[in-house]
């Protein structure tokens, strides 16, 4: 079933045309007619991209990261690129209007290719963005990924991408001791294969100063979204227990997706 989410370009106001849905689910019902519409919340470096992208492959819905849309716009040679680079390189948020336009264009292009459903990563990030999204469609579930703040800076600084295959890696060794009743956390680095080793790049906004600014902005501007979605009964909190090998099966369990593939073939 197609999902429609459009922005009227002639207007400076956001006016998405849309169809709304009534589904509310904390898990995937494979008999349901439309694909999932999920949002991933969480601080920079928590792993939204990693888990959203794995779930998107599992569920066959696009993983749409507004940070990627911003980086694509930055890499283009248009006037938007210059406007964005100063904002992004200081760790600040791009205006709601620009980000909603980038997202609308991405959704329209996907829809033209027959995409339906989505896992949004990095959107919404402000209350205004959440309201705009809520005005046009019904989000089924918001997954709030959590890690102790102490490890987030190291995780961002350890992030690397292969500029050829596009895969993400992390060279950080995380080993936080548990204290005051809080569990410790350890994560092995996710090292690239030899063919990617010489092609690794670091994001321009993954410097210590900018990561700290991004974390501060998250706490001030984006954290209120947790309460917004909690009050709507849509928030699923997920404390990551460690790296991907420990976290991925636990996340699937929490989403009641651990036997998803079996259920799907049974329903086919
Ligand atoms: P990310 O890859 O999600 O960390 O995003 C990288 C940068 O893109 C952010 O620091 C912002 O400057 C910008 N950005 C991404 N998503 C949004 C959003 N929803 N609202 C405003 N700015 C955004």
TrEMBL record:
GO MF term (any one): ATP binding
EC category: transferase
One Pfam family of this chain: ADK
Family annotation (PROSITE patterns): ADENYLATE_KINASE
Keyword Nucleotide-binding: yes
PANTHER family, A to Z: NUCLEOTIDE KINASE (PTHR23359)
Quaternary structure, from the entry: Monomer.
Name this protein carries in UniProt: adenylate kinase
The species this protein was found in: Brassica carinata (Ethiopian mustard)
Upper classification of the organism: Eukaryota, Viridiplantae, Streptophyta, Embryophyta, Tracheophyta
């Amino acid at each position: 079933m197609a999902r429609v989410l459009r922005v009227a370009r002639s207007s400076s106001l956001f006016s998405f045309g849309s169809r709304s849905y009534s589904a509310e689910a904390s898990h995937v019902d494979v008999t349901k007619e439309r694909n999932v519409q999920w949002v991933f919340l969480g601080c920079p470096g928590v792993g939204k991209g990693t888990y959203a992208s794995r779930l998107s492959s599992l569920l066959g819905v696009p993983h749409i990261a507004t940070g990627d849309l911003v980086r694509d716009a930055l890499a283009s040679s248009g006037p938007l690129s210059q406007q964005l680079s100063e904002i992004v390189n200081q760790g600040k948020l791009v205006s709601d209007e620009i980000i909603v336009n980038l997202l609308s264009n991405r959704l329209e292009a996907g829809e033209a290719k027959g995409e339906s459903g989505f896992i949004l990563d990095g959107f919404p990030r402000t209350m205004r963005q959440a309201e705009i999204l809520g005005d046009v469609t019904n989000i089924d579930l918001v997954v709030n990924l959590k890690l102790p703040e102490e490890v987030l800076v190291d995780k961002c600084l350890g992030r690397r991408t292969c500029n050829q295959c596009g895969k993400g890696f992390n060279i950080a060794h995380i080993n936080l001791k548990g204290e005051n009743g809080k569990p410790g956390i350890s994560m092995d680095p996710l090292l690239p294969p030899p063919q990617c080793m010489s092609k690794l790049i670091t994001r321009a906004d993954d410097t210590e100063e900018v990561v700290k600014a991004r974390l501060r902005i998250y706490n001030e501007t984006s954290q209120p979204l947790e309460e917004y979605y909690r009050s709507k009964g849509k928030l699923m909190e997920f404390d990551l227990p460690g790296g991907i090998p420990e976290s991925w099966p636990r996340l699937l369990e929490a989403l009641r997706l651990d036997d998803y593939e079996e259920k799907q073939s049974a329903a086919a």
